Amino acid sequence: DSSADTIVGIDINGEKEAIARQMGCNEFINPKSLDQPLEEVLRAKGIEYAFDCIGNQDVLNTALKSLTPWGSLTVIGLGKRGNKVETSVAELLEGRQVAGGYFGNMKPREANQRLVDMMCAGSLNIDSMITHRMRLEDIVRAFDVLKEGKTIRTVIEF
Q1: 81 with 55: CB under 8 angstroms?
Q2: Which of 3, 45, 85, 86: CA 20 to 30 A from 62?
């Protein structure tokens, strides 16, 4: 079964909640608004699958600690050189797993072709992920929007 009962989106930028819900999140958590540690909140929810999409050291460790036994962390985000996933042997013996990879662990040539095929078939809605389109001469503003956390993807038009 490839469906999840609950998908929890987490971001310190509360403005991302609407986008997260459009993309399928049932719940949204802004860690800045919590009165207890994020990993405690997540562990109470029974997180079986976690994905780190930004490569932040604290996010990696929180994601791993919040997993249930037999849970799986997939590292997608490229963090700073030297980032590590910190875990104990006991957590690994409980079945927790850590995996990572680019393009969903597919070879880029295959992955790109599959994504193009899915888009052409109408099963991948790329347009919903493009929040801004800007001209090349507005590239400084495009980076500002990215830094402000107001975009998912910005397309630069030539």
Answers
A1: no
A2: 3
* Phi, psi of 43, deg, nearest 5: -60, -35
Rounded CA gap, 141 and 1, in Å?
Answer: 42
Residues 6 or more apart in contact with residue 15 via CB below 8 angstroms: 149, 150
- Quickly name the fold that domain 8-105 has: Rossmann fold (3.40.50)
Tell me the pTM: 0.74
Task: Return the H-helix or E-strand segment holding 64.
Answer: helix 57-65
| Phi, psi (degrees; rounded to nearest 5) at 134 | -135, 155
Q: Domain ranges in the chain?
A: 8-105, 108-156
Q: Are residues 61 and 34 in contact, defined by beta-carbon separation less than 8 angstroms? A: no
